[in-house]
Amino acid sequence: MDNRSSNRVLSGYTMGQMRDPATREDTYTAEQRGESTSRFETRLDADRAADAPGETWFAAAADGGVNVHAGPVSAARLEMPRDGDNEIDRLRKLRLAQMKADAAAKKEYLRLGHGAYAKLEDEAGFLRAVAEHPRVVCHLCRAGSLDGQMMHTRLQALCHVHLETFFCWLDIDAAPTMLAMVALDGLPALLLAHRGKVVEQLARIDRSFTVESLAYELGEHRAINFEEGIDYSRGLYPKGCAAVRDEHNSDASDESD
Question: Which intervals carry biased composition (Basic and acidic residues) (predicted)?
């Protein structure tokens, strides 16, 4: 190869490789620039899309009514009061719509059996509860145990207040198969289920836990919608103090007879 041929090859190589960096970057694909969606993000988006059709939520309508939507919450699907309304009308409509939405949600929760602390008879009952309710807190204990009885009292208080969650309990002696599959860290134990799957286990909740501290712990795991300052006393005595006194007096009378 003569010198002129070498110069042409070298010149071609140099011109092809020493273009302006900005010009070269324009020819890169999104994957080469690191802007493409990762495999993890793709799988996460697919999981969210699969879960979305099963979600139902309530939204305030501009006329003060309530709309029921299915799928993920979207700001574009929320209706706000009309621009022509004054501030008082806007607040009134929003408040009225919120009250209607809360009432509709409460009605749906009660229809599903929320608001009561249910005893499950067997493992099949647990599987049905997890499948039928969006959020489940299931108390596993040995019937008659002191720690189990104390946990019953706390969960009884919570179930009357947090209607968004289904509360239940199961005697471990009635769940041999489940105990063989789930390694419990101790008793009593709480199994937390969300959208048909057991997602967390809370064990060794001792007697130092108050109703409020248990509610906070469940809220941290998104098992309930926890808020500061909630009064759980009405959940401890859902029939009222007078009714509790009457029942106590009746029991004492029966014992004396």
Answer: 21-40
- CB atoms < 10 A from the CB of 94, how many? 16
Query: Is the CB of residue 215 less than 8 Å from the CB of residue 231?
Result: no
202 sits in which H/E element = strand 197-203
**DSSP 8-state symbol, 51:** H
Dihedral (Cα; 13, 17, 18, 19), 10-degree rounding? 120
CB 257 within 8 A of CB 228: no
Give dist(CA 257, CA 101) in Å, integer. 51
Please list the residues that pair with 191 across neighbouring strands: 138, 201
| Number of other residues whose CB lies within 10 A of the CB of residue 251 | 10
More confident residue, 182 or 83: 182
Contacting residues for 181 by C-beta, under 8 A, at least 6 apart: none
Prediction pTM value: 0.59
Residue 126's CB is within 10 A of a number of other CB atoms, namely 23
pLDDT range class, residue 141, cuts 50, 70, 90: very high
What are 89's two structure tokens?
Answer: 């009308």
State the virtual CA torsion across 32, 37, 39, 43 in degrees, nearest 10. Answer: -170
Q: Within 10 A of 248 (CB to CB), how many other CB atoms are there? A: 10
163, 111 in Cβ contact below 8 A? Answer: no
Q: E strand or H helix at 224, and its extent?
A: none
Instruction: Using CA atoms of 209, 195, 111, 99 in order, give the dihedral in degrees to the nearest 10.
Output: 80
Rounded-to-integer distance, Cα 221 and Cα 200, Å: 8
Instruction: Give the model confidence (pLDDT) of 207-221 as tens digits.
Output: 888 999 999 999 999
The Cα 98–Cα 59 span in angstroms is 8
Mean pLDDT, residues 57-80: 59
